[in-house]
């Protein structure tokens, strides 16, 4: 992929005009100006509450794509300004049918997501104290957009198996869904997944021996326990 240059950043600005209209542009650019005033901090802007009494004009499909590596594209070109991507991500959610939608207080439209909208690029781990003085492990993740999430009951870790390659596809919930819709997940990149596997311990779940991790008092299975697991220690 070519590095994003000034032309690609301009494409992101053009997106604000062509895909979202002047009203949306003013709202998002106001947030972008605030981000620049913070020295370029990439903190996502607050999401506007949904109001069923104010239906938003349907704009169809915006020509926006989130690639598997988490890069946002407009008309085939990567959007080079991280602050701008964070602003779009702040108004991203999913519909009950699983589609991805950018929704502002004034309009909405669908976008394409190749895998998950976010990618987790860093794992944080700590051991604390839970009830009755027992150890309580906490696992957190940071995404490419600097959004942080702690794995817990509302933000579960799940691992799918690719039906073609047979390789694991790990995800963590970043923003739980609303109104019965699926939430927004981050795919764990390979180094982060390896760190997660290093923290795995065996447990019995529904009569099956599995490997998984604990976080905030919740156990998240990763894979079945290998037949030779612990064999070397027993030898």
Structural class: alpha+beta
Label the CATH architecture of the largest domain.
Roll
- Annotated CATH homologous superfamily of the largest domain: duf1285 protein
Placed side by side, the strands forming the largest sheet appear as: 3-2-1-6-5-4
- Look at the structure and give the CATH class of the largest domain: Mainly Beta
| Major β-sheet profile | 6 strands, mixed
Q: What is the radius of gyration computed over CA atoms, rounded to a whole number of angstroms?
A: 20 Å
The number of distinct β-strands equals 15
How many distinct folded domains? 2
Give helix % range.
10-25%
Shape: elongated
Gap between N and C termini? 49 Å
Q: Count helical runs.
A: 5
Name the beta content range.
35-45%
How does the SSE layout of this entry go?
Layout: H1 6-18, H2 21-37, E1 58-66, E2 72-74, E3 77-78, H3 82-90, E4 92-94, E5 100-103, E6 108-113, E7 118-129, E8 135-143, E9 148-150, E10 157-161, E11 168-175, E12 184-188, H4 190-198, E13 201-205, E14 208-215, E15 218-224, H5 231-234
Parallel strand pairs: 1-6, 7-12
Antiparallel strand pairs: 1-2, 2-3, 4-5, 5-6, 7-8, 8-9, 10-11, 11-12, 13-14, 14-15
Protein name: DUF1285 domain-containing protein
Pfam families: DUF1285_C (PF21028), DUF1285_N (PF06938)
Region (Disordered): 35-60
Structure description:
The strands form three sheets. The protein has a six-stranded mixed β-sheet. It has a six-stranded mixed β-sheet with strand order 9-8-7-12-11-10. The longest helix has 17 residues, at 21-37. Helices cover 22% and strands 38% of the residues. The protein folds into two domains: 6-113, duf1285 like fold (Roll); 118-234, duf1285 protein (duf1285 protein fold, Roll), CATH 2.30.270. The chain is an alpha+beta fold and 235 residues long. The chain has helices spanning 6-18, 21-37, 82-90, 190-198, 231-234; strands at residues 58-66, 72-74, 77-78, 92-94, 100-103, 108-113, 118-129, 135-143, 148-150, 157-161, 168-175, 184-188, 201-205, 208-215, 218-224.
């Amino acid at each position: 992929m070519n590095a994003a240059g000034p032309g690609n950043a301009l494409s992101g600005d053009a997106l604000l005009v062509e895909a979202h209209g002047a009203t949306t542009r003013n709202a998002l650019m106001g947030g972008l100006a605030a981000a620049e005033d913070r020295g370029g901090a990439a903190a996502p802007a607050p999401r506007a509450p949904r109001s069923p009494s104010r239906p938003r004009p349907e704009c169809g499909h915006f020509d926006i794509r989130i690639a598997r590596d988490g890069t946002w594209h407009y008309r085939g070109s990567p959007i080079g300004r991280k602050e701008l991507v964070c602003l779009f991500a702040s108004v991203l959610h999913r519909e009950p049918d699983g589609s991805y939608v950018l929704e502002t207080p004034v309009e909405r439209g669908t976008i394409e997501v190749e895998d998950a909208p976010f990618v987790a690029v860093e794992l944080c781990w700590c051991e604390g104290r839970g009830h009755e003085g027992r150890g309580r492990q906490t696992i957190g993740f940071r995404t490419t957009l600097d959004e942080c999430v702690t794995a817990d009951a509302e933000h579960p870790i799940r691992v799918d198996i690719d039906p073609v390659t047979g390789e694991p596809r790990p995800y963590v919930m970043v923003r739980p869904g609303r109104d019965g819709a699926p939430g927004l997940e981050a795919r764990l990149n390979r180094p982060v997944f390896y760190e997660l596997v290093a923290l795995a311990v065996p447990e019995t779940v529904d009569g099956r021996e599995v490997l998984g991790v604990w976080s905030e008092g919740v156990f998240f299975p990763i894979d079945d326990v290998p037949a030779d697991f612990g064999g070397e220690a027993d030898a």
